[in-house]
């Protein structure tokens, strides 16, 4: 009964959450940390615990209007202020405005002697006072381990710590406690993770000399949450986490078509080019013009006044700009107009996930319509095939939900074209162009195929791909008896055909002449016959007229004779 | 309990002690009684005890870096020393306050 259960969930009171403001973390936790409850952030040294805690307080104060208390057991308030100043956070100002209160708890074992029973009410009172003085909603305790280092009586500390957690809950403040990672346990004392309602584990892992920061939510009472390890990035904007596994495959699709920049290629793709928001892979061997094709596409995007983001993993932007000038593309002009942005980074600069995070960040900031990755092959140096594939899946997925067209180039290492590219992404992409060398008659020429192009009619022909000073073009290849003809062989064939055409034309004109002559002869014959016929007709007419004439004359004569006879008869009669 | 109770009224003291407590709990009463006993015994007329109840003056907790209660702070003579707990172990308290040599 789905309708009823739906009704029920709306009636039930769900766990209220406090957004952290840390990019991505709120998505993994589906809204933030449990409101009014303690959360533990644990991890080894240098994994970003304090930074995360600071962001929690500062963003709470700035973005959500919730004042916060930062109780530090490690760093002096001044040190902390300096450390976060590099992120553009002005802690002294926030403290003056009463949004943040920093309390440094100093514990020096050499100054302290313990005798008999005690409790940590002093700390509670101090914290309580700090909370009440600014009406804090958020509390950070960084790092509790220092208490254990400064005091000897572990039994008291453990009970007091437990009391602290429940006291924080009673106070109704959302608290974030940081803890050092212990051996085999999440924290040194193995206590905090059990009394916290939410535990976030931070890790800094180095694989093949490449470091990746990872975050995992170990537990979250009363809420669903992402369970994977999510890479995160610490840069000038603080922490950004990338929840990259929202592979729901339910992104909107566009049926709008965009040009590839090459009219001849568009013609091969059903006459209109690629779909907007699709993923395109150009693979090929070295020096087949993959980057040139990518640059053409970038150029075309910028010509449409759309933004394009170009990630180069092999060449520097200056190098690409110079090289593309040679085929008549001025990328510099687009960069100056702010339509094109190029980011060059060696793949080994950071881990795969880090690349993904930084691409993510750039895309979010720049809001491009087209993203180009040139080439993805080099990423293999920092991860295994499956890792690269997983990363690209997430990248394609992300870009598709944002309706961004993405173009990858990939280097095939062997000339034998296999059905799969190295990265195994060919099944993921919507369109796959293959540029390959065709070697014959002592020269190498480039051929281009469309291996696949989802959702459109596309040419099954091999085209010769030529790079000239004027730019790129696609030329039909000749499929003769000797096979595929390209380059000079094609030109020879073209010449041959042109000669043939001239000869044929010549032959044609000769035949025309012949016909004309024949016609003239025939016409002459027809004229003489006509004359003959006319003379016969004339002859016949002549006899006919003569006959008529004689007939007339004879009749005339007879009448005359008859008249003359009558006159003779009357004369004779009177005499008698 | 009174916030501050001065046990002696002399102008200058060799020993200035401050006891931080949080309410009138058995622990704080024990600590104060113990402290008074030790002082009378070893530092007669040389000391001043100031008792601060953090429930009444929570803002004072940060100044002396108080975490635990009860905490005894030796302000004078310097350096500052802190003893936490109910001060039940006399020897430890005396060592902690560095009192022993004065008695001799």
UniProtKB/TrEMBL annotation, chain A:
It holds the Pfam family ATPase. Residues 1-29, 556-576 are annotated as: Disordered. Residues 9-20 have a biased composition (Low complexity). Its EC number is 2.7.11.1. One of its GO terms (molecular function) is hydrolase activity. Residues 16-255, 256-488 form the KaiC domain. This is non-specific serine/threonine protein kinase. It comes from Paraflavisolibacter caeni. The gene is kaiC.
UniProtKB/TrEMBL annotation, chain B:
It holds the Pfam family KaiB. Signal peptide: none annotated. GO terms for biological process: rhythmic process. SUPFAM superfamilies: Thioredoxin-like. It comes from the Bacteria. Residues 18-99 form the KaiB domain. This is Circadian clock KaiB family protein. It comes from Paraflavisolibacter caeni.
């Amino acid at each position: 009964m789905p309708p009823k259960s739906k009704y029920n969930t709306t009636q039930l009171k769900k766990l209220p959450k406090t957004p952290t403001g840390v990019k991505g973390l709120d998505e993994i936790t589906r809204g933030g940390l449990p409101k009014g409850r303690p959360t533990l952030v644990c991890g080894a040294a240098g994994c970003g615990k304090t930074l995360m805690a600071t962001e929690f307080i500062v963003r709470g104060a700035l973005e959500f209007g919730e004042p916060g208390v930062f109780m530090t057991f490690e760093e002096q308030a001044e040190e902390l202020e300096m450390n976060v100043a590099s992120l553009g956070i002005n802690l002294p100002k926030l403290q003056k405005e009463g949004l943040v209160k920093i309390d440094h708890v100093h514990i020096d074992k050499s100054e302290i002697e313990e005798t008999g029973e005690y409790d940590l009410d002093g700390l509670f009172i101090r914290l309580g006072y700090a909370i009440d003085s600014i009406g804090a909603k958020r509390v950070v305790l960084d790092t509790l381990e220092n208490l254990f280092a400064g005091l000897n009586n572990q039994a008291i500390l453990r009970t007091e710590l437990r009391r602290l957690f429940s006291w924080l809950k009673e106070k109704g403040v959302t608290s974030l406690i940081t803890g050092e990672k212990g051996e085999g346990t999440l924290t040194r004392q193995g206590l905090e993770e059990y009394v916290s309602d939410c535990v976030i584990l931070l890790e800094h892992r180095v694989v093949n000399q490449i470091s990746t920061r990872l975050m995992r939510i170990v537990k979250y009472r009363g809420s669903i949450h992402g369970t994977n390890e999510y890479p995160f990035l610490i840069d000038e904007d603080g922490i950004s986490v990338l929840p990259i596994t929202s592979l729901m495959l339910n992104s909107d699709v566009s049926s709008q078509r965009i040009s590839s920049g090459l009219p001849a290629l568009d013609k091969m793709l059903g006459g209109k080019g690629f779909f907007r928001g699709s993923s395109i892979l150009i693979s090929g061997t070295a020096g087949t013009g993959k980057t040139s094709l990518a640059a053409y596409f970038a150029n075309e995007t910028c010509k449409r006044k759309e933004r394009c983001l170009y990630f180069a993993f092999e060449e520097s932007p200056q190098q690409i700009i110079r090289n593309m000038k040679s085929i008549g593309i001025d990328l510099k002009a687009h960069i100056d107009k702010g339509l094109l942005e190029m980011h060059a980074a060696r793949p080994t600069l950071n881990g795969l996930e880090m690349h993904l995070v930084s691409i993510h960040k750039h895309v979010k900031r720049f809001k491009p319509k087209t993203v180009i990755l040139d080439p993805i092959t080099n990423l293999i140096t920092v991860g295994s095939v499956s890792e690269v594939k997983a990363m690209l899946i997430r990248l394609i997925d992300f870009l598709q939900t944002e309706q961004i067209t993405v173009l990858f180039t990939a280097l095939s290492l062997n000339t034998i074209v296999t059905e799969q590219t190295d990265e195994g992404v060919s099944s993921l992409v919507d369109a796959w162009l293959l540029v390959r060398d065709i070697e014959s008659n002592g020269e190498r020429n480039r051929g281009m195929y469309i291996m696949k192009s989802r959702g459109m009619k596309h040419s099954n022909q091999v085209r010769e791909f030529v790079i000239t000073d004027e730019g790129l073009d696609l030329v039909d290849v000749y499929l003769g008896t000797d096979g595929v003809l390209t380059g000079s062989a094609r030109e020879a064939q073209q010449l041959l055909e042109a000669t043939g055409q001239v000869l044929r034309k010549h032959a044609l004109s000769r035949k025309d002449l012949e016909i004309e002559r024949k016609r003239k002869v025939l016409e002459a014959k027809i004229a003489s016959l006509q004359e003959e016929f006319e003379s016969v007709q004339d002859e016949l007419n002549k006899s006919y007229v003569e006959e008529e004439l004689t007939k007339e004359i004879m009749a005339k004569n007879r009448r005359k004779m008859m008249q003359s006879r009558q006159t003779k008869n009357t004369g004779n009669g009177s005499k008698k | 309990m009174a916030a501050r109770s001065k046990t002696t009224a002399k102008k200058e003291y060799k020993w200035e002690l401050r006891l931080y407590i949080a309410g009138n709990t058995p622990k704080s009463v024990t600590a104060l009684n113990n402290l008074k006993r030790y002082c009378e015994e070893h530092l007669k007329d040389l000391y001043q005890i100031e008792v601060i109840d953090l429930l009444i003056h929570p803002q004072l907790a940060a100044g002396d870096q108080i975490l635990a209660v009860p905490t005894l702070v030796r302000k004078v003579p310097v350096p500052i020393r802190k003893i936490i707990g109910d001060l039940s172990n006399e020897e430890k308290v005396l060592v902690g306050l560095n009192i022993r040599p004065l008695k001799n």
